[in-house]
């Protein structure tokens, strides 16, 4: 077992980071145009660390990996409010050749995502080179998708989940109502969560936010119900997929509406979304009984909402702003991982 340790870097770590950056980028095959990483100096790295920060990975106490951090506003991918998203930008992602294939990069990426979540950012971005397919595959495996390309420069991004507490049914409805503000025709929302988790309650909030007609209730006797808009917006299609074989059948539903023209909300069990392609919001509702009280009545019924935006549709959508989600409570200490 090796001792692998990743922590946020201090300005005094600049020399260690520059050593790793030079060793890693110096070992790359020559690229045209060449990268600029070898021009980094202790001074330039120290300035970057003082401004926004960085990560230093150590293996058995030796510098093994480095990342410089920056914070940037969203780039325009066709969304209407890209400036409302804010991203952690990873620069100079480096693993010393001596410490390759030991999980150093993976541990650093995990730590970077924790930093982004703790700072209340929407996601993580970086640029990679098209000539390095193994590098692109590394990011692809970790959920990073290509969002743009200029020549051989590939822009990659990963949205982070948004997590909220919903202590009461009214909070759950409120999440739905706020979510409705960004929903538009053609959108698909998947609600996963155990029996009674609050899926229908959240859908009621979406219905209220969209101003649709009819009471949103558990679709017990029908698989799907169409709620037309009262304000010339999209209709809400509310589906109970427990009774469907899977989402492959969604298109086969005999609805009085085309899914391209409606907001479709599907209640279902966990795991059914796996293997599904395309844009969607995956909403996972979970319930845990807190150990706050000694008696059953005293015990808190904790409900959490986790929203995972999937696909380019959601890249620029400022979910945190819309949902009023702040940074995570309590910035975590240094992450430690071991191979
Ligand atoms: N955040 C919450 N806190 C406390 N109670 C809640 C919360 N959200 C919903 N409830 C209550 O939990 C009960 C079940 O909610 P709901 O019917 O929305 O769950 P569901 O996930 O749709 O259930 P099913 O699996 O039967 O479809 C309702 O009485 C609702 O008022
Ligand atoms: Mg329900």
UniProtKB/TrEMBL annotation:
SUPFAM superfamilies: Acyl-CoA N-acyltransferases (Nat), P-loop containing nucleoside triphosphate hydrolases. Residues 4-163 form the N-acetyltransferase domain. GO terms for cellular component: cytoplasm. GO terms for molecular function: acyltransferase activity, transferring groups other than amino-acyl groups; ATP binding; metal ion binding. Keywords: ATP-binding, Cytoplasm, Magnesium, Metal-binding, Nucleotide-binding, tRNA processing. This is tRNA threonylcarbamoyladenosine biosynthesis protein TsaE. One of its GO terms (biological process) is tRNA threonylcarbamoyladenosine modification. It is found in: Cytoplasm. The keyword Metal-binding applies. It holds the Pfam family Acetyltransf_1. Required for the formation of a threonylcarbamoyl group on adenosine at position 37 (t(6)A37) in tRNAs that read codons beginning with adenine. Is involved in the transfer of the threonylcarbamoyl moiety of threonylcarbamoyl-AMP (TC-AMP) to the N6 group of A37, together with TsaD and TsaB. TsaE seems to play an indirect role in the t(6)A biosynthesis pathway, possibly in regulating the core enzymatic function of TsaD. Belongs to the TsaE family.
